[in-house]
Design a protein that fits this description.
This protein is an all-alpha fold and 73 residues long. It contains 3 helices and no strands.
């Protein structure tokens, strides 16, 4: 059974996804969700989890700022 910190981490990731979808409204919402999910899973093996939501946010923002939404092309 997941512990409390796992629930808090998942809640933070869910909130992050929604926030980035609002900020990057020109990007497809699924693209934002996929980028967040990909960045989040890149930390699956990490033992220290405290800053993972922040690191995920930076990684997703970097990708969203890098190029226009491919689905719009």
């Amino acid at each position: 059974m997941p512990n409390r910190s796992t629930h808090m981490e998942q809640d933070a990731i869910t909130a992050l996804t929604a926030r980035l979808q609002r900020i990057f409204a020109d990007a497809a919402p699924q693209r934002v969700a996929d980028l967040v999910e990909h960045a989040y899973h890149s930390f699956d093996g990490s033992r220290i989890r405290l800053f993972i939501p922040l690191l995920v946010e930076h990684a997703a923002r970097d990708e969203l700022n890098k190029a226009p939404d491919a689905e719009e092309s």
